[in-house]
Write a structure and sequence with these properties.
Strand content: 25-35%
Number of helices: 5
Shape: globular
Structural class: alpha+beta
């Protein structure tokens, strides 16, 4: 099973994301990755293999940021490679982590190709990143873009979404795949399992089926 961790805080969230992934290793996975927002840029490190290898790579890249998402993936569409690992990114602006399976990914992919979107993976998840970007271009609001994207998706998903245009904001959505929000003081978190967040909080909100959450530092 795949795992999701996300955080919005005043401190560097990379250690929080990494520890969360370690606590989700029991679920089984074949690749891992982290994306954070830093100084108006989206930075990402991902690779096939263990979280320990990701930890070494993160140390070399000095990845730091106040808003970020992370993922451990169990391959369904596409073999374990760096390109197939999450987070998936569109146009260096939108980053997405996804648990579940998007059943209508093929028609979405065909439609997005016609619009000029370029694919770098074999996954069904990459269409989510492109679809969020597509709707954001129209609405200019990340929550609305994710809500409109959710309406386009068929299948199961737990989503964590960030965008360089809205640092300090993390959108989560649930349909058929569990997600929980962790409540902090001046910081909030998301995860696919409470175990990932126990080092930072013991207060949780469990998203119900169909919920979409707008997660920020203060609310």
């Amino acid at each position: 099973m795949c795992g999701i961790v996300g955080a919005v805080a005043e401190r560097d969230v990379t250690p929080i994301l990494l520890e969360g992934l370690k606590r989700l290793e029991y679920r089984g996975y074949d690749s891992a990755g982290v994306a954070v927002l830093r100084a108006g840029h989206l930075e990402r490190v991902r690779l096939p293999g263990k979280v320990s290898a990701l930890e070494e790579a993160l140390a070399q890249h000095e990845l730091r940021g106040h808003t970020g998402i992370a993922h451990t993936r169990w391959a369904t569409h596409g073999v374990p490679t760096e390109n197939n690992a999450h987070p998936h990114v569109c146009n260096d602006s939108v980053a997405v982590v996804h648990n579940g399976i998007i059943e209508n990914h093929e028609p979405l992919r065909a439609e997005q190709r016609e619009l000029g979107y370029r694919f770098t993976s074999e996954t069904d998840s990459e269409v989510v990143a492109h679809q969020v970007h597509r709707h954001y271009e129209t609405s200019g609001d990340l929550l609305r873009a994710v809500r409109e994207t959710a309406a386009d998706l068929e299948g199961a998903y737990g989503l964590g979404v960030i965008d360089v245009e809205e640092p300090g904001r993390l959108i989560a959505a649930r349909s058929g795949s569990p997600l929980v929000i962790g409540i902090g003081i001046g910081e909030h978190f998301i995860a696919s399992d409470v175990a990932a967040l126990l080092p930072v909080t013991r207060k949780f909100i469990f998203l119900e089926e169909g919920d979409i959450a707008d997660v920020r530092r203060g609310s």
